[in-house]
Design goal:
It is built from no helices and 11 strands. By secondary structure, the protein is mainly β.
Length: 98
């Protein structure tokens, strides 16, 4: 858990990943990649800046059970420009997602 003062900034070329909680506002210009597999990352306010990447793992074999990375945002969510969404399917079966 990051509870330090001020905002947490992820610079271009850097990655904020893993699981846990960041209570400060988070501004992402690099990559946001929750979990080391299917897990969650929580934050206060979250801004995904223009050119940032949101990287998600999912398991289409268990899609109905909600088997995917998750970001829990307790504050405001801002998509500030073009954000690249990258999906990785962990299932061995073909994915129903393009």
């Amino acid at each position: 858990m990051h509870t330090g003062g001020g905002a947490y900034t992820v610079a271009a070329g850097a990655t904020l990943g893993g699981r846990g909680t960041v209570t400060a506002p988070v501004s992402v210009s690099g990559k946001l990649s929750p979990g080391a597999s299917i897990e969650s990352l929580a934050s206060g306010a979250l801004t995904l800046n223009d050119g940032s990447t949101f990287e998600v793992e999912l398991d289409s074999g268990a899609a109905l059970s909600g088997a995917a990375d998750l970001v829990k945002v307790t504050g405001n969510l801002a998509l500030d420009g073009t954000v690249l969404l990258t999906l990785t399917d962990l299932a061995a079966a073909p994915s129903p997602f393009p």
